[in-house]
Design goal:
The protein starts with a helix and ends with a strand. Helix 3 packs across helix 5. The chain has six helices and six strands. The longest helix has 18 residues. It has a single domain, classed as Regulatory factor, effector binding domain (Multidrug-efflux Transporter 1 Regulator Bmrr, Chain A, Alpha-Beta Barrel), CATH 3.20.80.10.
């Protein structure tokens, strides 16, 4: 039986279309930090590097290596923690948050979660293996780390990424009603749709604030 996160971990990956409070435990990720407009070629290259590692782990048994504790599983979705540059923060502070976002000022950490059986040693070996087969300087910037979101407010956003402010407004109102404060001004996005093959109005994205 294949471990399918879509079915087994619905609380984390299949939230409601209205805000809800949830506690997210610690998970393991391959991560890569970057900045700039995510519509550019650089961002696409960074995503490709993360997926090369994710599938490098998944396909190990077919290459003759079965790590201890390995189970068949579906590769986890792409995720990202998003922020804006300090200069953009000052601009927003001075002019208000209703101004169009300058996407060139975005800062991010994109990532793909890894199964529990993946150790630091296995992650490092996989990076070396992928580097040997398909050299890429981005692989040198990849980190393997554990991240715990903890208490969070999340919801499922349906539609274009450019329409996310509407969902964020709902999340902000929910936090105010529940007496919750954001611990960080960054937020997490989990991409349940492939933007290359999905019409903008049909995109499904988990949005998550970190609260306390």
């Amino acid at each position: 039986m294949i471990y399918d996160w879509k079915k087994t971990e619905k609380a984390y990956y299949q939230p409601k279309v209205t805000p809800e409070l949830i506690t997210i435990p610690k998970f393991k990720f391959f991560t890569l930090e970057g900045s700039g407009d995510p519509n550019g070629e650089a961002f696409s290259d960074e995503i490709g590097v993360l997926y090369s590692l994710a599938y490098g782990i998944k396909m190990l048994p077919k290459k003759g290596t079965t790590p201890e504790g390995y189970v068949e599983y579906s590769v986890f979705p792409l995720e990202g923690i998003w922020d804006i540059s300090e200069s953009e923060k000052q601009k927003v502070k001075a002019t208000g948050s209703n101004q169009p976002l300058d996407k060139s000022q975005l800062e991010y950490k994109i990532m793909i979660r890894q199964p529990d059986f993946v150790t630091e040693e296995l992650a490092a070996e996989t990076v070396k293996s992928v580097m040997k087969k398909k050299p890429n300087s981005l692989l040198e910037k990849v980190r393997f780390e554990e991240i715990e979101d903890g208490m969070s407010v999340q919801m499922l956003h349906l539609g274009s990424y450019d329409d996310e402010p509407k969902s964020f407004d709902l999340m902000k109102k929910f936090c105010e009603e529940q007496g919750l404060e954001r611990r960080l001004l960054t937020h997490r996005e989990i991409y349940l749709s492939d933007a290359r093959r999905t019409e903008p109005e049909k995109l499904r994205t988990v949005l998550r604030y970190f609260v306390g």
